[in-house]
Amino acid sequence: MRTFLRLPWRLVLLCIVVTNAIPQALAAASLEDELGRSEVRVRSAPMPLIPGRTVADYALEDRLKRLGYLRVRKRPTEVGTYFWGHEVFWIYRRAHRVSGDDHPAALVGLTLRRRDGMITGATAADDGAAPDRVWIEGETLAESVVEDRARRLTIRLDDLPEHVWQPVLAAEDGRFFDHGGVDAKGIARALLANIKAGGAAQGGSTITQQLIKNRDLTAKKTLGRKMSEAVRALWLEAHYDKREILEAYLNHVYLGHVDGRAIHGVGAAARAYFSRGVEDLSLAQTALLAGMIQAPNRYAPQRHPERAKARRDWVLSRLEDLEWIDAAMISRARETSVHARLETPPKTRAAHFLDYLEDQVARALPTRTEEGRGMVVETTLDAVMQTHAETTVREALTRLRRRHGGGVQAALVALDAASGDVLAYVGGHPDSGRGGFDRARTAKRQPGSAIKPFVLLEAFGPCGNREPLYPASQVADRPLTIDLPSGPWQPANDDGRFVGTLDLRRALADSRNVPFVRVARWCGFDETAERLRAAGLAIPTPAPPAFALGAVETSPLALAAAYTTFPNRGGRAHPRPFRRIERPGGRGLANRRADTSRVTGMATAYLVHDLLRGAAREGTAQGAAIDGVTVFAKTGTSSERRDAWLAGYANGIVTVVWVGRDEGKPLGLAGSQAAAPIWKRFMIDAVRLRPPVAEPEEPGEILHRSFDPDSGMLVRSGRRGSVDEIFRRRALPPRKRFFKGGRAVPVIQ
User: Fold this and answer.
1) What are the two backbone dihedrals, phi and then psi, of residue 734, each rounded to the nearest 5 degrees?
2) CA separation for the pair 88, 107 (Å, rounded)
3) Are the beta carbons of 729 and 699 closer than 8 angstroms?
4) pLDDT tens figures, 226-267
5) How is domain 375-445+554-593+621-699 classified at the architecture level of CATH?
6) Residue 510 needs a FRET pair 20 to 30 A away by CA distance; which of 198, 519, 569, 623 works?
7) In the CATH scheme, what is the homologous superfamily, with its name and number, of domain 2-23+145-335?
């Protein structure tokens, strides 16, 4: 306060005026928890804890530990703690925001069924009303949308030896504990240097000012920005303790790049440059880091050891002049050679998703992204599900490469069927980092038989200008020749055999190729192609007949979105990677609402939905079956077994897995062999991580009838040899009568 009173009266007046414009966001209880105007946070989706799942199913304790919550032995009394009892799970939840709404810190309880820990409801901490829904806040995925940043390792100043932070003060702000945020002597020294240089040549900023600049202001050196920086620094010092400001600075200061990842904070820097915890650093090492702050890449020890040593020794000299550290200790530090023991920072989580998100945010807010201004992005990603996805793909690629040679790649996309929310997203090997080739979105490969369910959408719907087909429709599986401008085309089945005649339910389950070409021709190649386009699949014009067998190109993301049509009652959900973008202070910038496009009618979608259940139960997708879970799935294998796919859904989660080689060489494996095991391993965990989702309600237009598989005609229910099937009300085969002979139901040729 004494320093403040000694400042020129004009600066004091400016403080009074400008302070009123400082965002209220700065007035938080914790400086570390608050965001500056230039800071970015990308957060995973908040998790609603809806009754019907157990604590273990939700991985609740794992989620809380990832957020930094501590387990206690009794009902919590402090924010950021939790207690897991037999009949209640108490969480003292931190303050957070969900889709633009503030949720203050509060003690909330989940009532549990004693025998298995199933959540049955919520309870209040006092006599008040129980909350309608308990949310767990999302975790921070990244602190930049455009840059690959290493994860910060947050430190507490009280846990650090003095020789860790004293060199930083010696190098950057020796009078830190004496000034009120602005050092008048430093300003005078910088002003004199700038007058001599004829412009803004020197800073003279305090650590508080540097923190303000990095968190709230642009890097442009102008008088207005410097004045704003000074005013904000004074305000910050009036509201926060010195040690809290220093702690925030140590956690945020930029310290160069290692292996292409930006290093922020001394905790991450200690690991990256010296492969040890910050509390274990020597004085020579902390002095080197302190010296790097001025120009991190210029003084990087791995690239410029001599330059780094000279700068380090200067910091040691400053410590000696200030008499903060024993002279003998400083002398020993000077004799130490500069040696970096680099440790590659941990790979960025959800790296391919962040690249995808960068593109989507840039489209929504191009100016803000280009200018590098701050924002908070609430994504749709489930952080725990993403971890499972990355682990599953990583382990599968290790196994596949060991057995089938290097170069095998994979991609996995999981969407919420109803909203299109991107729940998990892996565009290749999870350790490839930001900026790598994204096979989930960018790679265009042939989906093979995974496209066949969309052929049935046209067949069970308008079917061109013909009568709609149905699951019991009979189709020929015999040699077929189609004359094309390029010459005759003869589609073949994967096993090289023909079975004669079969119904469409069996044709999909067994993934017979020739019957689906016949069906597409019967309904019209152009009409069928248009139905696939409505589902979001890119079909060329004119469509080659081979499109009915997946001889077109698509991406896992596009195919996953198309597959939402089946559980979503005929509406395709558009992929949604984020729900909301806000300014760091909380004001909204952009919302992304759930969006669907009508592809077909509800009854038509339901017929295919039911056939996909059969394909997973007794068809080529049996490898995706999960005990106790109803699975709907279809395999896909492109020509010469170059690409292996599994597309399907369960419990409202649509997941697509692709496996192949980037150069397009044959993988040699079918979808059931390469993609199905990955899909199943991931979905076993994924279906438990989401609240229970009821299966789509059967439309009133659906009828249950029995038919004779030999004639294809309806018969009395329970008749010997009859088969139960579902039909649309206005698309039924004729009923078999004892007094009528002949075959009444034609075979699709």
Assistant:
1) -70, 155
2) 12
3) no
4) 677 778 888 888 889 999 999 999 999 999 999 989 999 999
5) 3-Layer(aba) Sandwich (3.40)
6) 569
7) Biosynthetic peptidoglycan transglycosylase-like (1.10.3810.10)
